Amino acid sequence: MEQNGEKVIEVKNVKKVYRMGRERILAVDDVSFEIYKGEFCCLLGTSGSGKSTLLNLMAGIEKLSTGQIIIKGKNIHKMSEKGLAKFRQRYLGFVFQSYNLINSMTALENVELPLVFKKVRPRSREKMAREMLTSVGLGKRMRHRPKEMSGGQQQRVGIARAFVAKPEIVFADEPTGNLDTRTTKEVMNIIKDIAKKNNQTIVMVTHDRSLAQYADKIIHILDGKIQEVEVVDREEICEVNAAEAAQQPEVKAVTVEEAISKLNQEQENIKEQVEIL
Ligand code: ADP
Ligand code: MG
């Protein structure tokens, strides 16, 4: 594959050291690579090899020890906290292994959430969320809450939420880690299809070699170091399930106040979640 497009992410000599008492853990050890616009990049390695740490550094969720991470020409670790939060809202989306949906909200409200924080007006917010849910095959599940959906359906809500604001880059950490083989294929095809259609860049962490078939570039990680960067000659292997016909139930859009009050009711993970979104 040609490597002469627009560089969207540059990782330069990045190190991350964790200190645990007297112990130093070198989780990411002098890593450098580049990712181009529209690439599907996979960080592949065994458990504990430093993949999540590296992804979190690239997303600005963790602070790096040394090195630089440049996204769209901006050194993200030089930004103020507010500046970084704005940057994330504008350019980045996230898919999590454990979905991280808000349990008290419906699928539609969950997908609207990033747009609430972006201050998109309720009417267009709802329209965008409905379209996104329909495109991941959940046109008939808009009013369901996470607990009323299967793992695969919840992750499709997670994907709809990550992509609804059309971010240029989507980071995904083991997005199919809790799913069975068949559902994994469905979810991977959905991610790949949406990303290709909109020329979005994907950075996905996995320990599963078989998922690397979806990638244009595979960065093999071992003990915090890059072992090899494999640029894949892509074959079109994806078949995306036809989206279910949209039958749209009546759902009231949430206001910012309602969203925040619902968030306040939730116990788990919320603070982290809101910070990332
Ligand atoms: P992977 O995602 O590849 O399984 P991680 O990036 O989670 O690996 O972890 C890489 C190494 O860094 C591991 O040895 C892990 O124990 C360590 N590590 C990760 N996060 C922390 C942390 N917050 N504090 C201390 N050590 C950590
Ligand atoms: Mg991990």
Task: Characterise this structure.
- By secondary structure, the chain is of the alpha/beta class.
- It has one domain (36-64, 76-249): P-loop containing nucleotide triphosphate hydrolases (Rossmann fold, 3-Layer(aba) Sandwich), CATH 3.40.50.300.
- Helix content is 33%, strand content 25%.
- It is built from 8 helices and 10 strands.
- It has helices at 51-58, 81-91, 107-117, 122-135, 151-163, 181-197, 256-265, 270-276, and strands spanning 7-20, 23-36, 40-44, 66-71, 74-75, 92-95, 169-173, 201-206, 217-222, 225-231.
- The strands form 2 sheets. It has a 6-stranded mixed β-sheet with strand order 6-7-8-3-9-10. A 4-stranded antiparallel β-sheet has the order 2-1-4-5, with helices on one face.
- Helix 6 (181-197) links the parallel strand 7 and strand 8 (201-206).
- Helix 3 packs across helix 4 (122-135), helix 4 packs across helix 5 and helix 5 runs parallel beside helix 6 (181-197).
- The two termini are 32 Å apart.
- The relative contact order is 0.19.
- Belongs to the ABC transporter superfamily.
- This is Putative ABC transport system ATP-binding protein.
- Keywords: ATP-binding, Nucleotide-binding, Transport.
- One of its GO terms (molecular function) is transmembrane transporter activity.
- Residues 9-248 form the ABC transporter domain.
